[in-house]
């Protein structure tokens, strides 16, 4: 595993976190829309639903990014790379 692949894996990890946060925001906006609808605030509920609709996209990437990052061969290569790098730094 090269340094660029380690960097790519770290960037994908950050994208995974950002997508998970935005997916959580989608759920939060839908819950707020439900509470607004229960309180007969139809305009506000519609606004929350409309704003949350675009965040629905962020449910898809975390699955595939997580699946790619956590492959057993990728983890093994990363551990070997980090072990080799730590050995070269100490000698």
TrEMBL record:
Look up the domain of life of the source: Bacteria
Could you list the residue ranges that cross the membrane?
A: 12-37, 43-66
Task: Recall the GO molecular function terms of this protein's record.
Answer: transferase activity
What keywords would UniProt list here?
Membrane, Transferase, Transmembrane, Transmembrane helix
Report the protein name in the record: D-fructose-6-phosphate amidotransferase
Q: Which organism is it from?
A: Vibrio ziniensis
